[in-house]
Design goal:
- With 505 residues, the chain is mainly alpha-helical.
- The chain contains 24 helices and four strands.
- A four-stranded mixed sheet has the order 1-2-4-3, with helices on both faces.
- Helix 14 runs antiparallel to helix 15 and helix 21 packs antiparallel against helix 22.
- It is globular, with a radius of gyration of 24 Å.
- The two termini are 33 Å apart.
- It binds zinc ion (ZN).
Length: 505
């Protein structure tokens, strides 16, 4: 299911020099290749880290990982060596794929069509299993490409082409990758293995088996409509009769179809969010407003109405139509949503709309944060990532030093546990800049680059920080001296990484 990884596979089995004598690629070699690929994807303009959607995807992903560990599919060695990181792409096409080294890509188009968390879990469980079963290392070992650099370039090229059905293929990449398209995929046996293990992983993680069926139904429908432009994985990844038979044999007795399961309101709102973020042109906004004002809306289930109103309010906000955004949001707020997570999602959207409007006086910004349970002036306990980022934005608008101090502390606390969180480092850099702490701001920017494996970019920031230090000279405070020693240490560490990166290419 889902376009899996595309790798050129030419028949003869000459192996990479790196890999030794025809055995599978080592985990660390595969990770280095994955790092090389993901570094480019982070620079792709379609890369998106929307904290709300990322939080949602992580809510499905982390239980799957825990289940794969408990089942022994994910070994401690692979757990430690691989990244197990999902990267979201703003693309409207329906796609998910596994990359070398435990990186995964998910298009917003997939989030926009799944009818439940269970369906999303079925796709992610399948992709996860390709990696835990080392399918990727087996493919790479069998390919006769000369260098990891070539393989990385081909994977990137194939991804670019799969994303853009109008690009007429070939020219994006160095030639033969795509001419070999029919050979670029996992074998049928690998697909069936990923189906089987992925199904075990998702059900053991507590997701409904029907999610698997619902997703399969969607694929079959798209396949019948020949809709491979919108569903790129269907092109490289046909549904074979064996796979369908396998699926049916796994279903609990008496289970029929998952396709008519109504989404809960949280899911409906997040689906709407993925749709808005994946392609909000002016026409799309009119589409949302037409749905929201349709007389038929009141006859629909509350969850459906929540999704439509959420999408309309968010689309209006992004088109800078503040009045319309507030109007649709007020309607959304009036719906009786009994699920606390849905209530939270609505609250976050309200903050987002007011932040984008930028017309509130400072005391109102602070009151707004307080009402949403995100008090800016005192410790607030454990915050979820979307809340942290909202707090940072609110603090920047409020601009008070006490508030900036508190939010800086909250962000630092988060980063202790999640040092690879580029977005949070970037917000911390903004907060430091607002506090006139230019050295710390530069260092936080450097860490944001490191988190996305851009070591050269990180080094630039650290050098800029050291130049600033020279300007400050002996007049610097004690705090400046502490910062200076941290910056010096990080510079030396990162110089090593830059050298390693240069040697690999
Ligand atoms: Zn697959």
């Amino acid at each position: 299911m889902a376009l899996c990884l595309v790798i050129p596979l030419q028949a003869q089995g000459a192996t990479l020099p790196l890999l030794g004598d025809g055995s599978d690629m080592s985990a660390s070699a595969e990770r280095r290749l994955g790092d090389r690929i993901i570094r480019e994807l982070y620079r792709d303009p379609d890369f998106v880290d929307d904290p709300v959607l990322t939080d949602y995807v992580q809510g499905v992903w982390q239980p799957l990982l825990a289940s794969a560990r408990a089942r022994g599919d994910l070994t401690p060695e692979l757990d430690e060596r691989f990244a197990w990181r999902i990267v979201l792409g703003r693309d409207r096409s329906v796609n998910a794929f596994a990359l070398p080294g435990g990186y995964f890509g998910v298009h917003l188009g997939l989030l926009a069509v799944v009818s439940s968390r269970d369906e999303l879990a079925s796709v992610l469980g399948h992709e996860l299993s390709h990696v835990t079963q080392r399918h990727i290392s087996r493919l790479i070992s069998r390919s006769n490409q000369q260098t990891p650099w070539m393989i990385g370039a081909m994977i990137l090229g194939a991804l670019a082409a799969s994303k853009n059905p109008d690009a007429g293929n070939a020219m994006i990449v160095g030639g033969q990758a795509l001419s070999a398209q029919s050979q670029l995929n996992f074998s049928r046996d690998m697909e069936r293995e990923a189906d089987r293990i992925g199904f075990g992983v998702m059900t053991q993680a507590g997701f409904e088996a029907l999610g698997f069926v619902g997703m399969f139904d969607k694929l079959q429908q798209a396949s019948r409509l020949n809709d491979s432009g919108a569903y790129p994985y269907l092109r490289s990844h046909p549904l074979t009769t064996e796979r369908i038979a396998d699926m049916q044999s796994r279903l609990p007795l008496g289970a029929s179809h998952g396709a008519d399961v109504l989404p809960g309101s949280t899911h409906a709102m997040l689906t709407a969010r993925a749709r808005v973020l994946s392609g909000a042109g002016g026409d799309a906004l009119r589409g949302w407003l037409a749905q929201a004002d349709d007389v038929g809306l009141s006859g629909q289930a509350a969850a459906q109405r929540a999704g439509v109103l959420y999408g309309a309010a968010m689309a209006a906000s992004r088109m800078r139509d503040v009045a319309q955004a507030r109007k649709q949001f007020a309607r959304l707020q009036k719906l009786a949503l009994d699920d606390p997570e849905a209530v939270r999602q609505v609250r976050w959207l309200g903050l987002e709309i007011e932040l984008a409007a930028r017309d509130l006086p400072r005391p109102q910004v602070l009151a707004l944060a307080g009402n949403a349970g995100l008090d800016l002036s005192k410790p607030t306990g454990v915050l979820r990532r979307p809340e942290l980022v909202l707090q940072a934005q609110l603090a920047m608008q409020a601009g008070q030093s006490q508030v900036l101090d508190q939010v800086a502390q909250n962000l630092q606390g988060w980063l202790l546990g999640q040092p690879n969180d580029a977005l949070v480092w970037q917000w911390l850099a903004s907060i430091y800049a607002a506090q006139n702490q230019s050295l710390r701001a530069l260092r936080a920017e450097a860490e944001a680059r490191v988190a996305q494996l851009d070591y050269a970019g990180a080094l630039d920031r650290l050098k800029a920080a050291q130049e600033r230090l020279r300007d400050i000279g002996a007049s610097g405070s004690r705090a400046d001296h502490i910062d200076a020693s941290i910056i010096d240490t990080r510079r030396r560490q990162i110089e090593v990484l830059v050298k390693e990166q240069a040697q690999e290419s």
